[in-house]
Structure formats: structure tokens, C-alpha cells
Specification:
With 153 residues, this protein is mainly beta. The chain has two helices and ten strands, in the order H-E-E-E-H-E-E-E-E-E-E-E. The strands form three sheets. The protein has a five-stranded mixed beta barrel. A hairpin with a 5-residue loop joins strand 9 (109-122) and strand 10 (128-135).
């Protein structure tokens, strides 16, 4: 393979997924059969793809930094002693890379769009998640409207 072709292949591989996000619902994330619950085949197949999911931000006693949990319905989680055990099985950790602290909570339904990650991951605070959505980059701030200052009457 010529060097230029190899470099182009690497560059193309590094591009983020530009396809429209796949709409996903919580009931399609986890399957419960005769054995232990498992990540649904559809969720496994969408790992690494952009998805769109609508849910409710989980109210947490000790919210994570730069992330929040999203569930199909409103949930109040009490982490004392149980970690994230109060979360529904299909709850998704939503990573917000551009926020360093606690993500401000929003009441009501929230739509998130980002890349689905599937598999065990532990954050810096020791919380384990199996399903994560890394939000798309924050949109650039719109330009400020022109100021009236200095304008002639």
C-alpha cells in the first residue's frame, strides 16, 4: 500500500461518524430472559455509532462530574452504600466532555445525541457503567448581536 493511501486510510478512520444518529429507546438497550440481564444485540451492534435517545436526567445524591445518568422515566437515586444500584438496568451514562464539574440538572424529557459506547467502564469516582453516550461536541456559541453602543441615533 503506498504511503499516501495508508495516510489517507488512517485519516478517514479517525473521522467521527457523520451519519445521521440512530433513534434508540431504552427498551432496546437491555434484554431480560431466563438468565441474567444482558446488553441487547441491537445496542451491541450500534456500539461506536451516533445515536439519539430521549429520557430523564436521574436526580442523584452525589452526581458525577462531567456526566449524568439518563433513564426512561424520572428517577431519584440514593447512592449511599449501593453506588448506582438504584438506577434502572437500561440507564445510560451520558458523558459531557466539555463540562468539568457537575452537569446542571434539567427537569423533563431530555434528548441526547452522541456516540454509543458499550462495555464495562469505571469512572474516576468508582462508578461502573455498561452503556454510555459521549455527547457530540458542544455547538459553537452563536455570534453576539451587534451592540447599540456607539451607534448614531
Amino acid at each position: 500500500m503506498p504511503l499516501a493511501t495508508f495516510a489517507l486510510a488512517i485519516a478517514l478512520h479517525a473521522l467521527p461518524d457523520q451519519r445521521p444518529p440512530v433513534a434508540l429507546t431504552f427498551d432496546r438497550l437491555v434484554v431480560q430472559g431466563h438468565g441474567a440481564p444482558a446488553i441487547a444485540p441491537e445496542a451491541l451492534a450500534l456500539a461506536g455509532r451516533r445515536i439519539r435517545i430521549v429520557g430523564h436526567m436521574v436526580r442523584m445524591e452525589l452526581p458525577p462530574r462531567a456526566a449524568f445518568y439518563l433513564a426512561a422515566r424520572p428517577v431519584d437515586a440514593d447512592e449511599s452504600g449501593g453506588g448506582t444500584a438504584d438506577l434502572p438496568l437500561a440507564a445510560v451514562r451520558v458523558e459531557v466532555p466539555w463540562i468539568a464539574g457537575v452537569v446542571p440538572r434539567v427537569e423533563g424529557p431530555v434528548e441526547v445525541v452522541g456516540t454509543l459506547e458499550v462495555g464495562r467502564a469505571e469512572d474516576a469516582e468508582g462508578r461502573v457503567s455498561w452503556l454510555r453516550v459521549v455527547l457530540d461536541p458542544a455547538p459553537a456559541a452563536p455570534p453576539h448581536p451587534p451592540s447599540d453602543r456607539g451607534a448614531l441615533p
